[in-house]
Amino acid sequence: VQLVESGGGLVQPGGSLTLACAASGFSLGTYAIGWFRQVPGKEREGVSCANAHDRSTHYAEFAEGRFTISSDNAKNTVYLQMNSLKPEDTAVYYCTLGCALIGPRIISFGSWGQGTQVTVSS
To answer: Where does 32-104 show beta strands of DSSP type E?
Structure first.
């Protein structure tokens, strides 16, 4: 199993970025896959989780309405479209295989990619 994130970078507040997570070693269409983020000194937090079984998608409150998770099964890649970015969205974003919404939180119980840095600054 391998997850490789890309698409991070520097963007101005209010801008947009699309992150990609290329998966290998398994088929995206059979798992729940999601995005987390982490800033130094803080816990990794769930951003979004998409479940291929029931086709449900879940978002953290801060991501609702601004971020969209999607996948291209032919490319075995999951995306995170991020709009209206804020400085507080600055973090390393990670792709994870295996996630779920438990209560108000998105949790991971699987493998991680290496992460991609997103910096929102003017």
So the answer is: 32-38, 45-51, 56-59, 67-72, 77-82, 91-102
100 CA to centre of own chain: 13
Question: For residue 23, which of 82, 63, 74, 91 has the smallest C-alpha distance?
Answer: 74
Q: What letter would DSSP give residue 73? A: T
Q: pLDDT (tens digit, 9 = 90+) per residue, 15-53? A: 999 999 999 888 887 889 999 999 999 999 999 999 988
* Closest by CA position to 23, among listed 116, 96, 92, 93: 96
Each residue's pLDDT tens digit, 46-77: 999 999 888 899 999 999 999 999 999 899 99
Q: Are 83 and 11 in contact (CB under 8 A)?
A: no
The DSSP call for residue 30 is: G
Q: Which CA distances in Å does 114 have to 4, 21, 53, 94, 95?
A: 7, 10, 25, 7, 8
